[in-house]
Amino acid sequence: MDAERIRAFLLQLPHVVETLQWGDNLVFWVGDKAIGGKMFALMNLETDDRGVFSYAAGAERYAELLEIEGLSPAAYLARAYWVTAADWKVFRPAEWEFELRAAHQIIYDKLPPRTRKILGMTPAERRRVVAERKTLLASQKATEER
Question: Structure pTM?
Fold first, then answer.
């Protein structure tokens, strides 16, 4: 597996939104963060010692996953049971897909009912609600900056 294949796989999962944040990190969300979506995976695009990929492992599998060579607690997110892969060779492609589906489901299950309701709307309705929410948030931010 590599960054492009992982990205393509993640973007095929239901309700996934991608953002670029904190320097060169692709962040994958279940639902747009403007409507209460939550991140479930983070891809480090820089070649440094922070690992290539972090994701929500869940409390049940966290300790088990940390026993795998190449996985470690995720910086800043370990308290929420996230792990970081040192490189793409930690898992075979099918194992990566299993882990990422599980991370997506773990976070989906934690979404507030209001967010789940929006995700259950038709794509057109959902786009409208997200756009309205982003407009409201931008307006609030502009007011705060004054």
Answer: 0.89
User: Exposed, middle or buried by CB within 10 Å (0-12, 13-18, 19+), for 110?
Assistant: middle
Decide: helix, strand or coil at residue 80: helix
**Can you say how many angstroms the Cα of residue 124 is from the centroid of all Cα atoms in its chain?**
23
Give the model confidence (pLDDT) of 10-25 as tens digits.
Answer: 999 999 999 998 888 9
Kindly list the distances between the CA atom of residue 50 and the CA atoms of 25, 63, 130, in Å, as whole numbers in the listed order. Answer: 11, 20, 32
Please report which residue ranges of the chain form alpha helices under DSSP H: 3-12, 62-66, 93-110, 113-119, 123-145
**3-145 belongs to which CATH class?**
alpha beta
Q: What token pair was written down for 140?
A: 């609030």
Do 54 and 65 contact (CB within 8 A), yes or no?
A: no
